[in-house]
Amino acid sequence: MLLRPLVRLLLRNHVPYRTFADIAKRVYVDVATEEFGIPGRKQSKSRVSVITGLSRKEVLRLRRLPVQSDLGALDRYNRAARVIAGWVRDRRFGDESGQPTDLPFEGGTVCFRELVKKYSGDAPARAVLDELVRVGVVERTPDGRIQLLERSFIPKTGEIDKIGILGVDAADLIGTIGHNILRPETPFFQRKVSYDNLPAEALPELKKLAGEQAQTLLEHLDRWMSERDRDVNPQVSGTGRVRAGVGIYYFQEDHRGENER
After folding, report:
1. Virtual CA dihedral for 206, 207, 211, 213, nearest 10 degrees?
2. Per residue in 52-62, pLDDT tens?
3. In Å, what is the CA distance from 208 to each residue of 137, 212, 236, 248, 250?
4. Where are the alpha helices (DSSP H) in the chain?
5. Three-state secondary-structure class, residue 167
6. CB burial class (10 A; 0-12, 13-18, 19+) of residue 85?
7. Neighbours of 153 (CB within 10 A)
């Protein structure tokens, strides 16, 4: 169940098994090295070999490969999401009805450059705009202003961009499930509702209802968290640095009985 949709996505994007296997082996070695060591002792390749089932020679080879990081993609995702969220909720960047207004790139206190400065730190405004245009979340109007097309960061340019979000969102969901298995006494919220005999005609209304109510909830939570986030409000006090959030997703598929599998 877990691997089937992932493999379907990989095959659709021409990622062969060997490539996936090499990536998986590297992740096995990295996680075993970083998270399954003996306190006070350096993690040896022999112990990593025992934990992962890979040979010591293979562990050594994988450790010598250049380090690959998803932090760049995650940072771009977070910055873009923060800019869009600020555009949606901050009344300074909205019209009289509270909807996000079209913004000039620069000039005055209500412009795209000021929006990026407030909600994306030191990221260059031009780079953020280029990324949002590239993925189809904003567009230029005939008079040169910038128009928001989506109230959340959902790339429209193809599956490769969406795969980047898959890596972030799926990791969060699996992390929550893992926490709930290991620490049932302090569970994270994890719920879903589903039925397996809905008529196809009901789905458009369900998707619309789910989208509207989920968006309202997420925007409410976004306002609450932004007031307490020290990147947005540096004056907020407190200790530590914790990443937390809530994710909502819609799913559907044709039902298959056991005899159809």
Report:
1. 0
2. 999 999 999 88
3. 20, 6, 37, 14, 10
4. 3-12, 17-35, 45-52, 56-63, 71-89, 112-119, 125-134, 159-182, 203-226
5. helix
6. buried
7. 21
- Cα dihedral 204→210→215→217 (10° resolution): 160
CA atoms within 13 A of residue 241's CA, in its CB half-sphere: 3
Q: What gap in Å lies between CA 7 and CA 9, rounded to an integer? A: 5
Residue 87's Cβ-count burial label (10 Å; 0-12, 13-18, 19+) is buried
Q: Beta-carbon neighbour count of residue 9 at 10 Å?
A: 14
φ, ψ (nearest 5 deg) of residue 146: -110, 125
Is the per-residue pLDDT at 182 higher than 60? Answer: yes
Token output for 216 = 């309202």
- Sketch out the chain's domains with CATH numbers: 3-63 (no CATH), 71-148 (1.10.10), 191-235+244-251 (no CATH)
Confidence category of residue 7, pLDDT binned at 50, 70, 90: confident
**DSSP SS3 for 242:** coil
